[in-house]
Amino acid sequence: MPKVSFVNNKNTYKKFYTRYFCDTNPDCAKDIACYSLHSRKSWQKELSNFRKPIIEDKSLPKWYKIVLFNELYYISDGGTVWFDIQDDPDCKHQVVREYGRFAYLEGQEYRMYNTYDVHFNANFALLQLWPKLQLSLQYEFADTIPIESKNDVKFLIDGKYAKQKSKNSLPHDIGDPYREPWSILNAYNSHDTRDWKDLNLKFILTVYRDYFYLKDLDYLKYMWPYIKLLMITVQSQDHDGDGLIDSEGLPDQTYDAWSVTGASAYCGGLHVATLSCVCKIAKILEDTECFEKYEKILSKAKKAYNDKLWNGKYYKYDCSNSDYNDSIMTDMCCGHWYLRSSGFDHEVFEKEKIKSCLETIFEYNVMKYANGKAGSVNGMKPNGSVDITSMQSEEMWIGTTCALASLMIFEGMNEKAWKTLEGMYNLLYNKLGLAFQTPEALMMPNVYRSLGYMRALCIWSVQYALEQKKEQQHN
User: What is the pTM for the complete model shown?
Assistant: First the structure.
């Protein structure tokens, strides 16, 4: 099937391989088969050369190598589409014309393409292995930021109607294959993601991380006006003027069933990290006005983050009066993780505080959860019991555990990182038999949710951390 149309049948796309195999040739399938057989040996050699440095690295556990390569199944098996749109007159990006339009589903049960809050974790695989596809995806997301949809939709969480996509905000996803992706944005209808606190931040963090890794200045320049639009929306979500983003008692981020009030470890940390990256970008692009503006906000936000959330041992979940405000969240240092992935050291978040957070997470969320044999549970109470505030607080997310391990490696805690990952690997692969259908979440004892899910590609963030550390030591 060289051509693809979605359910609305508005557009017809050519699959990327038609650039090399004529889509009107009745013998196209035979030509592809013959070419594949002819190229078999060279492909095997190239694949072997690709894997060889990792396979032969004796410092890496054998099980890690298995997981690292196996999880790439989702790149092709995630409801993936890869289109050749070089003849599309509306395509304005050379990288998209040259390398194609790429999309993968959030999950095989979650029918949304390029779900961004999840891609934030998964994109390390694309960045390292197919960087031009990562850039293609990023450019196309950037172009959606100023768009506002004409239609209103009903959101399930509160029954209210609002724009399906609001201007100056990042869409949750690029669309539903049962509608018309890229034309009808935001298939997600549980919450109005205009009010989410992490989506806009995650896009900006990813842009700067891409720039750090790829050194593509033209990419950074193109993204800068869109980043400034997003930051208008971001700062409008600071409701008390302390510089730090605030939540309104709703599950307004990727943990979309786990409510947050006021300043929070997760979104607050992402916000502080984003402000730091915005200042970096403004300095690189010599935008003095923006640099001075956001440097002042960053100074306030850092103070508010520490004053409101630091309890002497870790960053509290949020600032609510709830009985879970002091929960220990696996993802509390997510902002710092992306800064470390972007060449930062400890200029923003203090080294001793990060170390204390990671030690606490390891002690409670990893070791007190199934004795370290099931990854890192999302939420744990200070008394050593799992936070059962919501379904998501008592789940262990595979991608989040990988992100934690990646950060541990950046912070020199390799032994704890491997211990955390090995428990998850044994549970997933050896006990539950979920290889090549990795779920989003597990809940003890043997409950899983959403088989075949994008976020597990975050295992490549572990490899990213290992290689960045190696490069730092070499330099």
Answer: 0.97
